[in-house]
């Protein structure tokens, strides 16, 4: 992984891919807290009455932001006839996600 903040010792990062992950680095070490910080960042509920997640929760962040969901949303909009310069990229990504991980529902 290449990133611009190598010299930083205090920072937080968020990774969005098939899921959503996050970490906090404090004084150069991974911060691990008690019960106050949800270690499954992508499963933080952002909409309490949202759709159910595979984790058993509702409205988890990754239901709205993980790549399969983003791709699904773009595909739905393309099928509705909305033009987008993302179309070729999304169609190529569909093949990648279907081969390596769970595809977004309905794809
Ligand atoms: Zn969840």
From the structure above, extract its key features.
107 residues, alpha+beta, 3 strands, disordered C terminus
Small molecules bound in the structure, each named once: zinc ion
What spatial order of strands do you see in the largest sheet? 1-2-3
Give unreliable regions as ranges: 102-107
* Fraction of residues in helix: 25-40%
- Helix-strand sequence: EEEHHH
Distance between the termini: 29 Å
Structural class: alpha+beta
Q: What's the assembly state of these chains?
A: single chain
**DSSP, total strands:** 3
Shape: flat
The helix tally amounts to: 3
Strand content: 5-15%
Q: Mind summarizing the main beta sheet?
A: 3 strands, antiparallel
Overall average residue pLDDT: 80
Rg on CA atoms, Å:
17 Å
Written overview of the protein:
By secondary structure, this protein is an alpha+beta fold. Strand 2 (20-26) and strand 3 (29-30) form a beta hairpin. A three-stranded antiparallel sheet has the order 1-2-3, with no helix packed on it. The chain has helices at residues 62-65, 67-79, 87-100; strands at residues 11-16, 20-26, 29-30. The radius of gyration is 17 Å and the shape is flat. Helix 2 (67-79) packs across helix 3 (87-100). The chain is built from three helices and three strands, in the order βββααα. Bound molecules: zinc ion (ZN). Residues 43, 53, 55, 57, 60 line the site of zinc ion.
């Amino acid at each position: 992984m290449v990133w611009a903040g190598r010299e930083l010792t205090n920072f937080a990062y968020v990774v969005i891919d098939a899921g959503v992950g996050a970490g906090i680095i404090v004084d150069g070490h991974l911060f691990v807290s008690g019960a106050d910080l949800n270690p499954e960042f992508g499963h933080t509920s952002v909409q309490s009455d949202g759709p159910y997640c595979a984790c058993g929760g509702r409205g988890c962040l990754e239901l709205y932001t993980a790549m399969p969901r983003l791709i699904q949303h773009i595909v739905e909009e393309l099928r509705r006839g909305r033009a987008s310069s993302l179309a070729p990229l999304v169609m190529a990504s569909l093949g990648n996600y279907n081969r390596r991980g769970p595809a977004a529902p309905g794809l």
